[in-house]
Amino acid sequence: MNNPVIHLGLAGLGTVGSGLAKIIQENSDWITRRLGRTLKIKTVMVRDPAKARNVVLPPDTLFTTSMVDLLNDPEIDMVVELAGGIDFPRTLITRALQAGKPVVTANKALLAEHGSELFELAAANGLGLYYEASVAGGIPIIQTLKESLAANRISSITGILNGTANFIMSEMTEKGEDFAKVLGKAQAKGYAEADPTLDIEGIDAAHKLTILIRLAYGLDFPMSGLTVKGISKVEQFDISLAREFGYRVKLLAQVREESGMLHAGVYPALLRRDHILANVEGPFNAVLLEGNAVGPIMLYGQGAGDLPTGSAVLADILALARSSCSPNNTGFLESPLPPARILAPEQAVFEHYFRFTVLDRPGVMAAIAGVMGEHGISIAQVVQRQYSPDAGIPIVFLSHRTSMRNVAAALEAIGKFDFVLASPVHYRII
């Protein structure tokens, strides 16, 4: 790519694609100063070329419905995949790499599920497959792990990786509103899709966490190895009680190294009020890293949107355009990456929050505490709340650190008591 103009083939001109085009147009002089060359979107592949767009491209830009126009044009130096989905992008990226064209993508789901094969193909062809925009929007977390923290062994990553879920939890905490009402507000603001499943059930964050694990540890960690739980069943009652105990509830993505093995998952959890991530509000993202040389580092910013995500895509384009040696796709030389040793979920150790709704009967609290003791759960705090006789008594326990195996066994036993009126509520404390 030594020509004065770098020609891009763009697949998808939605929110992110439009943001990318706007930045290229508005910052063209700045880009030329940094790169010494000009960027030009030569061809755009879309489903409907006649559709009105919120960005105006130069009149000589070719709009097409065929990926052949991107792949077979010798003038196109780089393919940028912003179409979304899995099947089509997988085919497009595969064929682009086979055709000798480096690729930039923002497709977290594709990389989480098929990243291993695509990175192996890119390595075999000596080509770049860059993906800064796939995690946390405009936050430069990918480059940070690949380059800036390359000298560090990463012991843990804890992040708020989904802005929709964080907006919902922030509003429930601050406004005292229930989940359904706040979800409607998120949809009205455009934070949540009409079908919000990927966001509220933790799947989107799980895709992103899978990518971060690969970068941080140089290991292939399948999504099936993650514990994934969303926020759709989080109740206002528990948010309020957590606040009384000095905690806030957040949807967290976390990976920790324990004895050479990795435990990772996405779940709502309690964070101490003074924890730095507890104060990340609204649709913002944040990632807290722990390196053995640098210690803790946090990156914070907008996790979505046309311009923040478009900025991340453009950063990858510039990095690939500058590359004069083997591209750094995963941060490690091995291809394929070796498989991760995964700590069984039941062996993971946390502090815990429990809520039981029970009948007003003598000996109930003692019975529950007895079962916990039998399963190795040491109680740190307990509180009983006011109640309506028909609804039962809520009793809340906070525990010291114990394994998820102990927790599962205790909850199963307690759930069988005839005085327990509803399924127990349980959250990890981070």
Characterization of the model:
- The chain is α/β, with parallel strands linked by helices and 430 residues long.
- It folds into 3 domains: 5-136 and 308-322, NAD(P)-binding Rossmann-like Domain (Rossmann fold, 3-Layer(aba) Sandwich); 141-302, Dihydrodipicolinate Reductase, domain 2; 345-429, 2-Layer Sandwich (Alpha-Beta Plaits).
- It has helices spanning 15-26, 28-35, 68-71, 87-98, 108-124, 141-148, 163-175, 179-188, 197-200, 203-217, 236-244, 306-322, 364-374, 404-414, and strands at residues 5-11, 38-45, 62-64, 78-81, 103-105, 129-130, 154-160, 227-228, 247-258, 261-272, 284-291, 295-302, 349-358, 379-384, 393-403, 425-429.
- The strands form 2 sheets. Strands 7, 8, 9, 10, 11, 12, 13, 14, 15 and 16 form a 10-stranded mixed sheet that branches.
- It is elongated, with a radius of gyration of 24 Å.
